[in-house]
Every structure is written in C-alpha cells, then in structure tokens.
Amino acid sequence: MADWVQNLMDSLGYLGILLLMIVENLFPPLPSELIMPSAGFAASRGDLNLLAVIAVGTLGSVLGTLPLYYIGRAFGEERLVQWADRYGRWLTLSGQDIRRADDWFDRHGAGAVLFGRLVPGIRSLLSLPAGMSEMPLPKFLLYSALGSGLWASALAGAGYLLGENYDQVEQYLGPASKVIVAAVLVAAAVWFLKRRKALGVRN
C-alpha cells in the first residue's frame, strides 16, 4: 500500500494528499499514519512544500469528517432514542442511556473531537456522535481542524525527518491503533455484560 500511496502523490501531488485524507476518514484501512509521512518524505525530497502538505492534509481530513457528521445529524438523538426504547433491550440499551451519552457529549464534545482526532483507531468515528448530538457545525469544524492540524503536522514532520524510512511511522502506529480499537471493544463488552447482569438482578 505504501508504494501505491507514494505513486499517487507523485502523479497528483497536493490533490492526491487531499483525496487520500478525505477517503481515510471514510475507509480507516487506508491510514493517515501512512499518507502524511509519505507526503512529508516527498517534501524532504523537494517535490512538495512541507507547510503546504500539512495544510492540504488538514483540509482533506476535515472534509472527510463531514459525511459521517451529516449522517449522525440526519439520524438524530430522538430517532435513536425511539429505536433504543423499541429494540434496545436486546443490547441492554435504553433511550435514557442515549440521552445520558448525548448529555456527556454536549459537555465534553469539543475536547472529545479535538483530542480524539489525535488518537489512531477512533479519530474517524467521532464525527458520528458529534452529528447526533447536533454539535454546531462551525464548532465541530474548528476543533476538527485543530486536532487534524496537530496530527497532520506530527505525521508529516516525522516523514520529513525520517526520509526514506518514513514507513516506520505506520509500522509503529498501526499496531497501536489496533490495540486502541480492541480496548474500546473490550470496554464496550464489559459495559454490556455488567448492564445485562444489573438488569437481570432487577428482574
């Protein structure tokens, strides 16, 4: 995949970075941990400008958040609450749980979006709850841009410094993202089992 990403950037330049970072948010198996270091390496060769690479990578990342944001916004809290009240018992999930989660996101959503954009494995998924909680679009774009800018800067800078060894960034961060996703799934499973046990005791 590294060769394909590099070839695309060689042929399309900044447009290639933009398109890849948009797609990365919708198709996580295409990781930014590979795209941006590759772009940083291209900048180290003098083919691209490092600041422009970071700016275009940030823009692509922010644009890539919008489809899931709008899907979450279209689905909405009330529709999800109705679904949970009707079918959520199979997942030990109630409408009240949805409202609590939405209240939490209303309180901490800005920080979740900002710092979540720096976490491999979940950075692409935060757009959905942001849309569902109806976070104002300007606020969502601002914090997405800040987090994405920091992430793009770190990755492109690493690729610039590592040169031909830029793919080492993905080798280290790739496994980390899998660990984070696994930890989130385990935490969700533990919550599910505890919730189910608590409901069983009440009944």
Automatic annotation (TrEMBL):
The UniProt keywords, alphabetically, are: Cell membrane, Membrane, Transmembrane, Transmembrane helix
Q: What residues does the VTT domain cover?
A: 30-160
Question: Keyword Cell division, does the record have it?
Answer: no
Question: What's the short name of a Pfam family annotated to this entry?
Answer: VTT_dom
Taxonomically, the superkingdom here is Bacteria
- Subcellular location, in the record's words? Cell membrane
Q: Which InterPro entries does this UniProt record tie to the protein?
A: DedA_domain (IPR051311), VTT_dom (IPR032816)
In the bilayer, the protein is annotated as: Multi-pass membrane protein
Q: Does the keyword Nucleotide-binding apply?
A: no
Instruction: Enumerate the transmembrane spans.
Output: 12-30, 50-71, 140-163, 175-193
Q: What is this protein called?
A: Inner membrane protein YghB
Name its species: Deinococcus aluminii
Encoding gene, per UniProt annotation: yghB
